[in-house]
Amino acid sequence: MKQGSRLSTMKKSTKANGITYLMLLVAFAVVQIFTATGSMTNLIKGLLVPACIYIIMAVSLNLTVGILGELSLGHAGFMCVGAFASSFFSVCMRDVITSEWVRFPIAIIIGGVVAALFGFVVGIPVLRLRGDYLAIVTLAFGEIVKNLMNVLYIGKDDSGFHFSLKSAADLGMEPDGKVIVKGALGITGTPRDSSFIVAFILVVITIFVVLNVINSRQGRAIMSIRDNRIAAESIGINITKYKLMAFVVSAFFAGIAGVLYSHNISTLTATTNNFGYNMSIMVLVYVVLGGIGNIRGSIIAAVILTVLPELLREFSDYRMLVYSLVLIFMMLFSSSPAMVNFREKLSLKTKRSKGKKAKEAV
Amino acid sequence: MEFLQFFISGLSLGSIYAIIALGYTMVYGIAKMLNFAHGDVIMVGGYLLFTISTTMGLPVWIGITGAVVGCTALGVVIERFAYRPLRGATSLAVLITAIGVSYLLQNLALLIFGAAPKSFTSIVTMPAMTFANGALTVTGESIVTIAICIVIMIVLTLFVNKTKPGRAMHAVSEDRGAAQLMGVNVNGTIALTFAIGSALAAIAGALLCSAYPTLTPYTGAMPGIKTFVAAVFGGIGSIPGAMVGGLLLGLIESLSKAYISSEMADAIVFLVLIVVLVVKPTGIFGKKISEKV
């Protein structure tokens, strides 16, 4: 059988996923070539890991927003949980496990699992609620996490760990004790284990898992819930289970993005811009701009919107303004009934004219 | 005595929340959408008042009128151009648009007025009152806020129950299609609801900035989200519910600031939301709506 015919008989989803992977491969090769030839500016080099972080964030949020059809505004909260959990681990184990090739993978798993646990705990009560409520509760969750991280103190001395929600002095430690999490000052001294290679591998894993979830039996169940909850329930799909599944997977990868983030900077603090509402909205912009439910779109949007603002620094005041307009106009164009009708008419017309041409050709 | 002091400040904060929550709950009841931008309309009201009375030096009553008129117009414009085209679209699309509008208002304010906080002069000239030999102080702002809140509550209840446009609101929130068949102007009614909600937001903005006299582009965001908690607490769509929810929320926030931790007050408020939604998702006064296939 010839290559071409195999391509045409391939399943549509396989073909689309193949293009996504190919795109990643090309991007990776381009980065490697540029690095090898030394034509990479420091600015771009510094953006490589953040770009990967945002890709992971956008793809995982797209699983909740696009595939599950529920709006989560607390995605940054999961990232925050993952970042702090893994950073805490790395700082504690810095002297015990010296090899970063052992320590960092464990940190990644810890960050992801802790975020997934939070996703599970938040998801159980919340996912039984309707859309608007889910959005506001996830938003509340994100704010709670950010708030807690700003008052949390954890210290370590010979007798073990000490926790406090008031101040470092309140920990009641022995004099040789070390404060690891310093409330609003966050965690300092996280080893800088994140590198582009690791980040890229994690991007590939994220995309692989998310695409496979989408194209699996579970993914179809999740999408059926999105399209018609009552119909899905009536054919025996366990709504809570599948919703929770998508939500937990999404939280897991947000946690991993948090690990990459915290191991890429030296001081980790929770502010509105990195783990608050603003971050959740920014990731939502990536998802909306790339197309809700379109994984490849999320990747492209995340990369473009990470690199572009850095290159256009003089317009940085207008960036958020443009983001908000993007949200509004994308929604008006893609979802307003008038526009949907208009597009349907248009596509019908082009189809008809194509059909005519095909007939004429025959 | 100390408790009473915190109780009164909670009541005053709660009254502001209640006024904001009224706008939220009315819009939700009628348009069935979460107006995320509501909190930012409060901020716009604050800036309008600041510009007119502090920067331009005009009397306060002109400032308040200007803020109310400006916010009402803003609410109607937002409804007309951002939300009306999406009527009938999925709730996800509407929600994302509302977030976009909220963000747009914040960033426009940031561009126009800058990020530096403006110190707001209180619009209340009433002096503080002391009771029990100075052990209990009630600020003029508290008294005015609580009084205004009660007046708004009474007027709004009368308006919704006794007047024709008010009953049209009831009809539209009950069944939009049937209301239209009965000759109710649905678009007009929804626009009117947005206008009332935004006017209330302007008043709330003036009171909020008087009680907490710093004004930044993000002033409205937090109260906006918190009053959603209040609206849900009382049962979203219900006017007395918004009132009770707002007052309870103000009390919870003020008392937890006083007795637990001031940094964690916000977290506690949001925890209340999660607990309420899990235990009684319809809120205190909410109606249970069964879904029809």
Tell me the β content of chain A: 5-15%
**Sheet having the most strands of chain B:** 2 strands, antiparallel
- Please provide the count of β strands of chain A: 5
The number of strands of chain B is 4
Bin the strand percentage of chain B.
under 5%
What's the helical proportion of residues of chain B? over 70%
Order of helices and strands of chain B: HHHHEEEHHHHEHHH
Radius of gyration computed on alpha carbons of chain A: 23 Å
Order of helices and strands of chain A: HHHHHHEEEEHHHHEHHHHH
Structure description:
The complex is a heterodimer of chains A (362) and B (293). Chain A is mainly alpha-helical. Chain A folds into 2 domains: 49-311, Orthogonal Bundle (ABC transporter involved in vitamin B12 uptake, BtuC), CATH 1.10.3470; 321-357. Chain A contains 15 helices and 5 strands. In chain A, the strands form 2 sheets. In chain A, strands 2-1-3 form a 3-stranded antiparallel sheet. Chain A has a two-stranded antiparallel ribbon with strand order 4-5. In chain A, α7 runs antiparallel to α10. The relative contact order of chain A is 0.16. The mean pLDDT of chain A is 84. Chain B is mostly helical and 293 residues long. Chain B has one domain. Chain B is 72% helix and 3% strand. Chain B has 11 helices and 4 strands; from the N terminus they run ααααβββααααβααα. Chain B has helices at residues 2-31, 38-55, 60-83, 91-113, 140-162, 164-174, 176-181, 186-211, 221-234, 239-259, 265-279, and strands at residues 118-119, 129-131, 136-138, 214-215. Chain B has a two-stranded antiparallel sheet with strand order 1-4. Chain B has a two-stranded antiparallel sheet with strand order 2-3. In chain B, a hairpin with a 4-residue loop joins β2 (129-131) and β3. The longest helix of chain B has 30 residues, at 2-31. Chain B is globular and about 65 Å long. The termini of chain B are far apart. Chains A and B meet through α6, α12, α14 and α15 of A and α4, α9 and α11 of B.
